[in-house]
Amino acid sequence: MLDFKKGDGLVPAVVQDWKTKEVLMLAYINEKSWDETLKTGYATYWSRSRSKLWKKGESSGHLQEVKEIFIDCDNDTILLLVEQVGGACCHEGYRSCFFRKLEDGQLSTVGKRVFNPEEKYGKK
To answer: For 111, how many CA atoms within 13 A lie in the half-sphere containing its CB?
Structure first.
């Protein structure tokens, strides 16, 4: 169904809130994480930095329950519509990983923190 060959075994996954359609994050999925996502109903990705499967929310408790899945016309990108458990997606404590906006060449924070990452992870 998905063409994992084009991206060296990875396909990008755009993740949106299933009710508001707010973009929460972008991650990558390989065949194993795809199978795990389909099997469990919770988003599982491939962590490029840690080179391992990563169930979103495994350490924070902020899981992503998959409500709908869309696959693009080339079978090499997916769109996950999820219920974001715990209200935050970003490891920095924001609802969305896209909490900064570029204006006049400067980044400004436009999101509000849902949790303190130091309290959740012991670090920022």
So the answer is: 21
Structure tokens at 70: 């869309």
- Please state the rounded mean pLDDT for residues 3-22: 96
The pTM for the full model equals: 0.91
Topology, domain 11-121: Ubiquitin-like (UB roll) (3.10.20)
Instruction: Using the structure block, give the residue that is written with the tokens 């929310």.
Output: 57
- The whole-number pLDDT of residue 1 equals 85
Q: Fill in the amino acid letter for 47.
A: S
Averaged pLDDT, 72-78 = 97
Continuous segment of H or E residues that includes residue 34: helix 31-40
The residue extents of the domains of the chain are: 11-121
Please give the Cα distance from 27 to 15 (Å, whole number): 8
What is the sign, positive or negative, of the torsion defined by CA atoms of 55, 57, 61, 63?
negative
d(CA 87, CA 111): 13
